[in-house]
Amino acid sequence: MPCSPQYVMSNGKPMWPIIQQSLVRLQQLSAARSVTYRDLESPPLLRIGSNRSLTMSQLQAASLLACAFFCLFPYRSDQAQSKEYENFPNPNFNRLYKSGSPAKIEKLKCILHYFRRITEKTPNGVISFRRYKLPDDSHPQWLNSRQVLCNLHLTTGKKIEDIDCVLQGGGVLGSGCVQEEIRFSICPEMLVSLLVCEMMKPDECIFLIGCERYSSYKGYANNFEFDNDYRDDTPKDNWGRKWCHLVAMDAIYFRNPSIQYDMKYINRELIKAYTCFRLRKVATIHQTLFGIATGNWGCGAFNGDKQLKDED
Question: Which range, of 36-50, 118-132, 268-282, averages the lowest pLDDT?
Fold first, then answer.
């Protein structure tokens, strides 16, 4: 628990009140009648079919995560989901507090460590969430393409966390604890996307830009464990965002793996990958473009064929 010796800060103060601070601040402003409309305004939602971005400070993200920690977002819990939000994930942490997999406790350790870090030193960076829909007139004509495939570099023995669920975050606030859930646990600012991003369609993707990593870990799935602090020294862009662009791109779950070789499903995965990696106006460092790093996207629990996905 946050009140245990393990969750006491270096100055001797317990962590439990730390998560409450941003909520108490709003209460104080309301009591003093100095709160403004913008203090209470909810962040804009990135809905299906839209091309728009949402940028906020890391401190604003922390306030939203404090609300999620105390399950304060209305109409978003599994039991009270309104039709307006039926295609949004539940951002409240209520499922994480229920009994179940030991990995839930380890994910909570990551989140509590995040609150400790941002309280010991207030972050001054910025994060962005961008939803992108491929224009209807930009769908590629694969049969007419003469584009040469780029080189692939395969690496073994290293870890990378992919996102392949139609609702970003997957089971991070439940019992899930594989690639996507691990990434959201060690980079808790990504959890804000559960609040603002609707589920993805086949020609859509979501960019999570600048989210900082706070925890190191060991193990995987039921053996996942919070390990220690992690200092993210990734440089920042001119906006103050970490140079880390993570793309949420959902793969098809194949209950019957043999059907993935049908052209209907191959075309769907091709469109998804093209939507995510299509060359657009992008920010660069030293006038160079970033490469793309991925694990076995859509394989593993989704039963995808690794060789087929490489060709996609």
Answer: 36-50
Bridge partners, 8 (sequence order): 14
Report how far residue 202's alpha carbon sits from residue 128's, in angstroms, rounded to the nearest whole number: 22
* Cβ atoms of residues 63 and 188 within 8 Å: no
pLDDT tens-digit readout, 63-88: 899 989 999 888 776 555 567 788 89
Catalytic residues: 164, 180-181
pLDDT tens, position by position, 172-202: 999 888 888 999 999 999 999 999 999 999 9
* Of 182 and 283, the one with more pLDDT: 182
| Three-state secondary structure string covering 257-291 | HHHHHCHHHHHHHHHHHHHHHCCCCCCCECCECCC
Which residue has better confidence, 183 or 26? 183
